[in-house]
Design goal:
This protein is mostly beta strands. The protein folds into 3 domains: 238 residues, Rossmann fold (3-Layer(aba) Sandwich), CATH 3.40.50.1110; 139 residues, Sandwich (Jelly Rolls), CATH 2.60.120; 114 residues, Jelly Rolls (Sandwich), CATH 2.60.120. The protein has 7 helices and 35 strands. The chain has a 7-stranded mixed beta sheet, sandwiched between helices. Strand 7, helix 4 and strand 8 form a beta-alpha-beta unit. Helix 3 runs parallel beside helix 4 and helix 4 crosses helix 5. The chain is elongated and about 85 Å long. The termini are far apart.
Length: 620
């Protein structure tokens, strides 16, 4: 049976709804899960279906615009498209005049707030909630529109704290050009909400409508498509956008690279600069797309016979957004170690093999200055080995106050110190600042010239390091900024290097095991807020892995946490990036005992990369 789609023009006039209903006849029966109004038109659909899908479950809440995308209203419907893409179970709830919240009992069917409660009571638990609401609100300012949104968003947070909220901006033009203030006010309020809520994804429907192919013929207010075919085009665009913002596993995994050398011990070294383009009088700064071979043999802190190094690499004066890759002058791997950008100084730990003559090659995508510092050498002769520890937060100055020099008694913080010579740490700058550096060093030595973290004004940024500790088992971190307000600092210890039995390092050719942009590693689409991705990252017999973790253009300022998959998510971070930027950091983390996997947890919606550089096995 053919059912006439509801093509209703809804406009706000003096705070009241004016609904224009087409005069063409409709049939008596409504689509399954839908209800007819007294005039014979569909006024409400609450459709439930589908089985558990690879992408997760999804619920849709909407007004008359969403109603036209329901099953039976246009073919193929939005639910049909989403089920075909791997979503399920699925529920679409849409009605004429739906708004974020109505307090009166008689309007519960058009109150999205109360439908969230109904879903919960019915046992429906969506991973994603897609919202198409706004044309029926009547708020006059950004603040009042945001208050209306908060009612719904806060209820979603209570009922479904891990759900991603996808929300479409509105088109509501009346007959005027440019668009009326209400449309712009509502959409500005959505922008404000999305900037403050890491679980929120916005769809720019006004821009999508303007570029739709085929074009969509709209009603006089540009609110509704005029035809079922227009709804199909809109649903196709909606589904494509929704599909991008939650990762799903479809395989395959990436095969692990072969071991490059026998396992190696670690010999920590005092931080020192071993190469700097500003003192390379012959070659100077890197040109774009340049690969440079650098001789590190005999440099301070580089041990004789070392076949791999732990380095601190910094870029500055960068001409364009790009990245660096360090490798042992064989075939350049399709991986990255440092992501740089104009106007920013970027620093990251890099673990890399070197040639037999202790040369390393550096490829730079962009023109930039580069400096390299030493953290230590990986050697065959007996030295230190790694003992991973449960990530331990030894400093957080947010409750205690900022300071220039942070001194840490490691034993007092619960970190093992017996026969320990160095620690693996993650350092993070947090909160408002003038920009600057964090430098970790043993408290009985002079602060070195090589910082471990560089951060721009008001930027949260993380950096990993292997750092020697003092004879009295203390670690110091210097905070240097453009003013005396400094910045807040978080310091997490993830392992210790000891002369006792521990783990030795097996370097490998750097290999990309995860890239959500392209599906490398079997995970497709962006990693959602609070979502966990697992990555088999080491072979049987390995207890820990080291690799580069990269956040690519998160929607809001956020972070990634790397941790052992069969343990709870720790209160630590490994990579931090501000909205729209790219940031990389090295993680050294234990793997689980079954799949030898590392897990990545995200605070925010981001594309995520993981490049393995080696793993850690029991010392022979």
């Amino acid at each position: 049976m053919r059912v006439k789609a509801v093509l209703v023009s809804v406009a706000l006039v003096a705070g009241a709804l004016a609904v224009t209903v087409p005069t063409t006849p409709v049939e008596a029966a409504a689509p399954a899960g839908c209800r007819l109004a007294s005039n014979g038109y569909v006024e409400l659909c609450d459709q439930v279906g589908g089985v558990a899908g690879t992408r997760g479950s999804i619920g849709m809440l909407g007004d008359s615009v969403m109603l036209g995308s329901a099953t039976g209203m246009s073919t193929p419907s939005l639910p049909t498209m989403l089920v075909s893409a791997g979503w399920g179970p699925i529920r679409l709830t849409a009605s004429l005049g739906m708004a974020t919240y109505w307090s009166t009992t008689s309007k519960r069917d058009v109150s999205a707030f109360h439908w969230i409660d109904r879903w919960k009571a019915a046992g429906f638990s969506p991973d994603v909630i897609a919202v198409n609401i706004g044309a029926n609100e009547g708020c006059a300012s950004v603040a009042s529109c945001k208050a209306r949104m908060d009612l719904l968003l806060d209820e979603i947070k209570v009922q479904y704290p891990k759900a991603t909220v996808w929300w479409a901006k509105i088109v509501h033009t009346y007959l005027t050009t440019p668009s009326p203030p209400y449309m712009n006010t509502w959409n500005a309020a959505l922008d404000a909400e999305a900037a403050a809520r890491p679980n929120m994804v916005l769809w720019d429907w006004p821009s999508a409508l303007a570029t739709a192919s085929p074009p969509i013929s709209m009603d006089l207010g540009s609110i509704h498509p005029r035809t079922p075919a227009g709804y199909v085009t809109r649903s196709t665009m909606m589904a494509a956008h929704i599909n991008r913002y939650r990762a799903y596993y479809a395989g395959p995994r990436v095969a692990l690279p072969a071991a490059s050398t026998p396992s190696l011990y670690f010999s920590p070294a005092p931080a020192a600069t071993v190469y700097d383009t500003t003192t390379d009088l012959v070659r100077g700064a890197f040109a774009a797309e340049e690969t440079r071979e650098i001789d590190l043999s005999g440099a301070p802190g580089v041990a004789a016979g070392a076949t791999a190094l732990a380095l601190t690499v910094t870029t500055r004066n960068t001409a364009a957004t790009g990245f660096l890759t360090l490798y042992p002058c064989d075939t350049r791997p399709a991986t990255s170690n440092v992501n740089d950008a104009p106007g920013r100084v970027r620093t990251a730990q890099v673990l890399t093999r070197v040639t037999a003559g202790q040369h390393v090659c550096v490829y730079s995508q962009s023109a930039t200055d580069v400096s390299i510092g030493i953290q230590g050498s990986f050697v065959a002769a007996a030295a230190d080995s790694l003992v991973p520890v449960t990530p331990t937060r030894v400093v957080d100055t947010r409750p205690t106050g900022r300071q220039h020099l942070v001194a840490i008694d490691l034993a007092a913080k619960g970190v093992p110190t017996t026969h320990v010579d160095a620690v693996a740490v993650n350092l993070t700058s947090v909160g408002g600042s003038a920009g600057g550096t964090l430098t970790a060093f043993p408290c009985d030595q002079t602060q070195p010239e090589v910082p471990n973290v560089t951060f721009a004004p008001n930027e949260t940024m993380a950096g990993a390091a292997y750092v020697p500790i003092s004879a009295t088992k203390t670690l110091c971190v210097a905070v240097d900024t453009g003013d005396t307000n400094y910045t807040n600092v978080i310091i997490d210890v993830t392992g210790v290097f000891t002369s006792d039995a521990g783990l030795t390092f097996v370097p490998v050719t750097a290999t990309r095991l995860l890239d959500t942009r392209s599906g490398i590693g079997g995970w497709y689409s962006r990693q959602a807020h609070l979502q966990v991705l697992d990555i088999p990252a080491a072979p049987a017999g390995a207890s820990a892995v080291s690799g580069t973790v990269t956040m690519v253009r998160p929607l809001t300022t956020g972070f990634l946490t790397a941790y052992q998959c069969d343990t709870p998510v720790p209160v630590t971070s490994v990579a931090n990036a501000t909205a729209g930027n790219v940031a990389a950091n090295t993680a050294t983390v234990a793997v689980d005992t079954v799949g030898h996997a590392v897990c990545l947890y995200s605070w925010g919606n981001t594309d995520t990369l993981f490049d393995v550089v080696g793993w850690w096995i029991g010392a022979s």
